[in-house]
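Troubleshooting log. The previous structure file for this entry was overwritten by mistake, so regenerating from the original sequence record. Sequence copied from the archived sheet and checked twice against the printout by T.R.
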Amino acid sequence: PLYFAPTNFFAPPAGPPATTRLDPVAVPLADGTVLLAGGGDGAGVVADAELFSPGGATFAPAAMALNVPRQGAEAVLVPNVGALVTGGRDGNGQPIARAEVFDEAQRQFLSLPDDARLDARFGHRAVLLADGRTVLISGGQSQAAKALTSTVFIKVQPGGVAPISAGPPLSTARYQHAAVVAVGVPVMIGGYGIDGVPLASIEALRPADGAQPAAFVPIASLRFARAEATASLLLDGSILIVGGAGDAAGTPRDDAELYNPITRTTSILQLAAARRGHTATVLPDGRVLIAGGVGLDQAGNPVALSSVELFSPSAGDFVSERPLGAPRANHVAVPLCDGTVLVVGGGPGAEIYTPPAS
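Regenerated output below.
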């Protein structure tokens, strides 16, 4: 490696990104580079892209760009194909219906045909199912700013081929929720409901059998309602749900919940800082890096955070970590091929985190 980051630190890369982006999409590619595209640049919403090279720790302009400028889109990595990008908002703040596939073999974004089942939406969630090809799109907000129950299956294949089919509706309309696939089953957690108030409900996709079709069904409840939280699947199959907004005003919570999928119950864990809209990155050894987000200053006003916490499953608790070099919210965190984590967007420059030994 040509770049050295001191262990347990957030260190700037050798070269910063050309654009400070809010809510971009980030796609780790098969060759180890990271494609950073779209987002807001402070003046509008952009479509251009940059490539980050871990070896030299530098960014360079990318020849490819999104077909639709978008901010707050969902991007899902699809192995051996590339990535699917859906939804988000345009420069007028309106939700986007069109989806596109980044085809890694062609090194370009390919637009999918318009389809009525691809509702215009943002604040939705997209997860890759167990077959490694099908992406489930769930919930979000529509053009009327209403919470959606609709879901969509998109089966991504090489060459920009991606058949679309309608999925079963969610049992509860929700947006800015958390979603994770556990034991092959998509699980939807919290989010804002139709009245803009955070939800405590958890639902999962019940597969079809001979007697009944596939359907989303409630399976459990959080101890506390929360939206804009993160959900991370741990190595033992449990789900770590961190922070989030606890009310319609977006007040961040200072706790987390550890969900046991066997007992369908949660236990409460304390955070060092209240936060929502942060990132949660599962490290190779199973620990979870919680970085940035939106917290509150001493006057109770929302503010971007630089604080970082590390969850250790073996200890069952959080420990405070060295802070980010700059406060960040609306950023992305991408695990790199060497076990480090790239944190970029939501603030100036970029940072690389090198985890300490477990």
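The longest strand covers residues 265-275. Archived copy saved in two places this time.
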